[in-house]
Amino acid sequence: MVRSSTLSLCLSVFAALCVVALPARGADPQYNKTAKVIQIGGGSSWDYLYPDAAGRRLYVTHGTKVVVIDMDSDKVVGEIADTPGVHGFAVVPDLKLGFSSNGQENKVSIVDLATLKTNKKVDTGGNPDCIIYSSGSGEIYTFNGRSNSSTAIDAKTGTVNATIELGGKPETAVCDPVAGKIYDNLEDKNAIARIDIKTHKVDATWPIAPGTGASGLAMDQELHRLIIGCDNEKMVMMDSQSGKVVDSVTCGQGVDASAFDPGTHYGFVSGGGTGTVTVVKVTADKLLPVQTLTTERGARTMAVDTKTHKIYLSNATSRTDANSFKVLVYSLEGAPAATEPAK
């Protein structure tokens, strides 16, 4: 009896020691709290940042031009002029062409990426905002805020292939070329519209509750998950195949952009009202909080370089100060080795 008790006690102590000796699960890498600043100047309006990870350029929309930054040196290397009220930019690598959505003139500029000169302009719906490339169909899509439509343009010829009625005010869109679908936030409908690329028609509309007023949208194509940034301080994850909302977490105020990095499996939502970026680990069924990064109030537009994992945010402390517009750069501490972006 005494031997049995002593043996049990020894085994219990040994088990406890083994538990203590087990290595703790490593914490996810976090972003540096201090930003590198790329000074651009000018206090006028700005909108989307477009990261071309393969071409190593960041395209920063800024009033009537697009500023070009080298993502290896983080220095301004050029600009694209004559883009009135520019909102977004997209790149077609095979054609060596870029496309800007010019909101004030209801047109898309087609730009030679070698010279940064405009080849031609194409008419769109009213106030083209977000602009994306569908590699599967070879088309550029604009999402037109005043006409609640999308304009599909043949990237090679500049011909308008279709005008798609969306049923609500569009915001950010993403493309899944494998599925042959495009997903777009309908800001005033609290919904995601899904476009079939072959038919040029909306084939599904899904509610985003508990989110409302979505603007940011990104996608984990491997897990078929949409990352939706909403103006009611919600970051929502949706199954892109079924339209089911899988999870949601609280994020900052004044949400504008969402992003996803397949190399780290991090999802991001920028909150310009609070000056924060909410960073989460994306899994099939959960958004796992990693970090709330403090940036600057007003820093709402955002992009991620999927090669170096750096975050870029544009901001201006004053719309009249000629030197106030800038891009903030945050690096990932203990980042994994640089990887080429998924193709």
Description of the molecule:
With 343 residues, the chain is mainly beta. It has a domain at 28-36 and 214-343: Methylamine Dehydrogenase, Chain H (7 Propeller), CATH 2.130.10.10. Helices cover 6% and strands 50% of the residues. It is built from 1 helix and 28 strands. The strands form 7 sheets. Strands 1-28-27-26 form a 4-stranded antiparallel beta sheet, with no helix packed on it. It has a 4-stranded antiparallel beta sheet with strand order 2-3-4-5, with no helix packed on it. Strands 6-7-8-9 form a 4-stranded antiparallel beta sheet, with no helix packed on it. Strand 23 (266-271) and strand 24 (276-282) form a beta hairpin. The N and C termini lie far apart (68 Å).
Topology record:
Layout lengths: L1 H20 L14 E4 L9 E4 L4 E6 L2 E6 L4 E6 L5 E7 L4 E6 L4 E6 L4 E7 L4 E7 L4 E6 L4 E6 L5 E6 L4 E7 L4 E6 L4 E6 L4 E7 L6 E7 L4 E6 L3 E6 L5 E6 L4 E7 L4 E6 L4 E7 L4 E8 L6 E4 L6 E6 L8 E6 L13
Antiparallel strand pairs: 1-28, 2-3, 3-4, 4-5, 6-7, 7-8, 8-9, 10-11, 11-12, 12-13, 14-15, 15-16, 16-17, 18-19, 19-20, 20-21, 22-23, 23-24, 24-25, 26-27, 27-28
